[in-house]
Fold these 2 entries.
Entry 1:
Amino acid sequence: MVSSALAILFLDLFAFYATFPNQVKKLMIPSMILVFIYLFGVFFSKINIGPDSEIIFESFVDIVMLITVLPLFLIPIITLVYYSYTMKSRSPPHARRSAWLAIAIFLVILSYIPEILGPAALINYLRGFYTMAVIIFYFCFTRFIDIRWVQKIHHLYICIADKGTCLYDHPFIEEEVMECSLVTGFIAGISSLIQEITRTQKRLKIIDMEDIKIVLEQSNKNIFGILMTEEDHKILRIKLRRLLEVFETEFESELIDFSGRIDAFKRTKKIVDRIFVYKEVF
């Protein structure tokens, strides 16, 4: 019973650490209280041995297990589902991984409950869910590499595609960088040159170096979004396209009557913070 209680407690700890790592100590308090009540009820109950050498507890132990074990099982699933829902718009990779982790824990619980509450005849049939859960756990921690997208970004540039004029740039990490107009002018020039060489209207999407990728997205209104990043994650392209859409809507009049002044684009930072900055739930 002690091993069972610790196993359930570990599931709660795992869920909290995967979602709210900075709040683990506070969130674990209710779970630890429930485990204490569970163990207290088991240790201070009368134990009988059945005809098949099965351990039989007093009836009130079943009640204690119902009001403690069930919430302990539900806590990690509810935590992961809540986190997945909350992060759906903030960071889809985190939301998807959390949802799959909830499914994996549900499978673990589904195969584990009969061992505690019975009937024992189902145990052998439900243990196969353990294998499915392990496979899901494996993919969650080896395939969802894009959840680290926020640590991969170095610099963002927005410029006029055909001229290379930099309208706004935003550093995500502290590093020495070149004049933004030189960077955007050079990249815009490369993009145009490649189109001429290949004689195609298709746009350059990425410049891939050994440790840095230059991700490019061009809008229909001749605006370039340039992202210096360590990985070309799908989530980064989605956010870059979204940024260009909001940027063009926000500065529609300034882009139509653009005179070379870029002061009007300084408030782009608020848009970048809203779209690119990853924030924990709490």
Entry 2:
Amino acid sequence: MPRVQSEPGEAVNAEVDCHEPLVEKYRPRQLRDLIGLVTPKRTLGKFILRPFKSAWMFIGPSGVGKTTAAHLVAEEIGAQLHLIAAKWCDLEAVKRLCEACAYVPNRDWKPVSFHLSIVDEADQMSHAAQIAFLSVLDGTVNLPNTIIVFTANSVQRLEPRFRSRCHILEFTTDGIAEGLEDRLRWIWAKESRDHVCAPDFAKLVAASECNERSALDRPDVEILSALGPG
């Protein structure tokens, strides 16, 4: 059994029952694993079969799977992934992205067909970044073999000419509540101990506003507190 030193000359038991966060353990691995989102899954499923250089705008409330869907598209296409995190999209970030996408895309040091850039919360980007992206979207700045996915909660802060250059894909909560409740119940059955009382899954889904990460918070904490010697 492994031992660690807590104080000089004192050995303690270092056996640990490691707990992987449920949101990571059960995150979707393929586009089809997303709950609800019938139209986005159908549209992106066809796009994955025949990807092309393009710009997309995924619009919808927080937590419905916009960024997750973008990551899954990158995985299923096998693209080189570039990520501009929320509120970090300024002019310098756009310049760095253009420089990176000017090279032949590669993944694990092997050439691939596409770059795929995810710009999270694009409605929070600086005005200068938005203007710079217009040059990319209208072809003035050529980024070959590049797919750009912007995510946004709304488009009010984005100029109409910016939106017009993107394929708009709306993400809604339609069909998510029932599917999320079923998934939570299934995860709970797999992960919980018999002596731990199950939460009210319908209330969890309602309180989370169909945000899967938020809905998994309480079961994760309760399961974690129950871990230990059988």
